[in-house]
Design goal:
Blueprint lengths: L4 E6 L4 E6 L40 E4 L4 E4 L2 E2 H7 L2 H10 L5 H13 L5 H8 L7 H15 L9 H27 L12 H10 L10 H14 L6 H10 L5 H12 L7 H12 L5 H9 L18 H17 L4 H14 L1 H5 L6 H12 L6 H21 L23 H13 L1
Antiparallel strand pairs: 1-2, 3-4, 4-5
Helix pairs in contact: 1-8, 2-17, 3-6, 5-6, 5-10, 6-7, 6-17, 7-8, 8-13, 8-17, 9-10, 9-17, 10-17, 11-16, 13-16
The structure holds carboxymethyl coenzyme *A.
Length: 437
């Protein structure tokens, strides 16, 4: 369209520039032509924390934060959560289409085939303290996978890439379950390839002496839905890390370990653990108003509230509330739910939260469900990391195939000293040191 342009007048020089507008954005590089003098570097865009910068084009996930919409490859999250299995959604995210029956069978067998981990990895895990955080164990063991599969370095070979993707998706629940059992001092349980993805995960987590673990189907389905909801969320902090680290052509294990590190922070995936700590600290419904006043006075944040993109209710939080009811029918109601509901009710009526468009996000209720299912809070973020691995890998693959992408390397606005010289006494000291050497 001829009028899809933007005209910029530089008031420093009076010059006017016309730059193309593409998908409601301009290319930051088009600003470079705007100069005061010919030997100028040209205008930069300054955007700390990427508040208004698209770093890529992506066909994986669509998110409309104002309208509370989330779609994977065009399909609404509500439909996927209701009708699909996690492995179907994983296939969709990675390949762009849902699998047909044959493709699903092949895909399931491929993932199942990769659930075992090398015995040496178990030895590596044994080196961790009993109270090592499971996220730290997961991050380290995923990084260690890089040493087991040196072929992974060939990231431009589609077949090799495909194999590492299947390995990572297959091994993630095994590593997570081993990390969990390590913290409890329990022996590791090998994968049971007769079971589906989430049931096998539950088997590796909770099997004791029974010959065959039988997962409760309601809880297995709940876990499946939670995995679907967490599978991708476009350019969030850990996915951007995955893309940035992957852009240096590091192998997918090192790259995924970096994404896990990003996810572990309390402002991102680590928030689900923090929500439970916060609910413990509040302790009772009666103490909610005082806690909210404390937050409004600037003492801390309401964990599980707010989102960079959603400025309306997070659609995942709505689905999670339904899942919570189904889980509580089996496990009994988690008493923390009453505190959480009261917190949500009061916060959503309060001008402080309304003006800032702060709503419960995916992490607000997920921890309450996980706790009811028997997980300890330190493993909540690991439960986020297993399904998000799929999103990371889909975005990593897309990045590698995108001819516009290069190594991620932002610019800076330098704020330090202008050039200066060492003082005479510093010059003398340096001279003495180099003579002595
Ligand atoms: N409690 C109280 N105030 C908040 C909160 C909160 N949870 N979140 C944002 N605000 C305030 C913030 O202080 C700021 O106020 P003011 O305008 O007076 O300075 C305003 O709201 C805008 O916030 P922001 O910090 O500019 O928003 P952001 O987009 O940079 O941060 C966020 C997004 C998710 C990091 C933030 O909302 C937050 O820290 N929330 C709590 C942690 C959390 O639940 N994280 C999980 C996010 S969803 C899943 C995931 O990504 O893993």
């Amino acid at each position: 369209m001829p009028n899809e342009t933007l005209t910029i007048t530089d008031n420093r020089t009076g010059k006017t520039y016309t730059v193309p507008v593409y998908k409601d954005s301009i290319r930051a590089l088009d600003l470079r032509q705007i100069k005061v003098a010919a030997d100028d570097f040209g205008l930069l865009s300054y955007d700390p924390a990427f508040m208004n910068t698209a770093a890529c084009q992506s066909a994986v996930t669509f998110l409309d934060g104002d309208r509370g919409i989330l779609r994977y490859r065009g399909y609404p999250i509500e439909q996927l959560a209701e009708r699909c299995t996690f492995l179907e959604v994983a296939y969709l995210l990675l390949n762009g289409e849902l699998p047909d029956a044959d493709q699903l069978e092949e895909w399931t067998s491929e993932i199942t085939h990769h659930t075992m981990i090398h015995e040496n990895l178990k030895k590596l895990m044994e080196g961790f303290h009993y109270d090592a955080h499971p996220m730290g164990i997961l991050m380290s063991t995923v990084a260690a996978l890089s040493t087991f599969y040196p072929e992974a370095r060939n990231i431009h070979d589609p077949e090799i890439r495909k194999r590492q993707i299947a390995r990572l998706i297959g091994k993630m629940p095994t590593l997570a379950a081993y990390a969990y059992r390590h913290s409890l001092g329990l022996p590791y349980v090998y994968p049971d390839n007769d079971l589906g993805y989430t049931k096998n995960f539950m088997n590796m987590l909770w099997k004791r002496t029974e010959p065959k673990f039988r997962a409760n189907p309601v809880l297995a389905r709940a876990l499946e839905v939670l995995f679907i909801l967490h599978a991708d969320h476009e350019q969030n902090c850990s996915t951007s890390t995955m893309r940035a680290v992957g852009s240096s052509y590091a192998d997918p294990y090192a790259t995924t370990a970096a994404a896990i590190a990003a996810l572990s922070g309390p402002l991102h995936g680590g928030a689900n653990e923090e929500v439970l700590r916060m609910l413990d600290e509040i302790g009772s419904k009666a103490r909610v108003p005082a806690y909210i006043e404390q937050i409004k006075a600037g003492h801390g944040k309401l964990m599980g509230f707010g989102h960079r993109v959603y400025k309306n209710y997070d659609p995942r939080a709505r689905i999670i509330k339904q899942v919570a009811n189904e889980v509580f029918e089996v496990t009994g109601r988690n008493p923390k739910l009453d505190i959480a509901l009261e917190l949500e009710r009061i916060a959503l009526e309060d001008d402080f939260f309304i003006r800032r468009k702060l709503y419960p996000n995916v992490d607000f209720y997920s921890g309450i469900i996980y706790q009811a299912m028997g997980f300890t809070p330190d493993v909540f973020t690991v439960l986020f990391g297993i399904p998000r691995t799929v999103g990371w890998l889909a975005q990593w693959q897309e990045m590698l195939q995108d001819s516009e992408q290069k190594i991620a390397r932002p610019r800076q606005l330098y704020t330090g000293s202008a050039e200066r010289s060492l003082r005479a006494e510093e010059l003398e000291f340096e001279a003495a040191v180099s003579t002595a050497a």
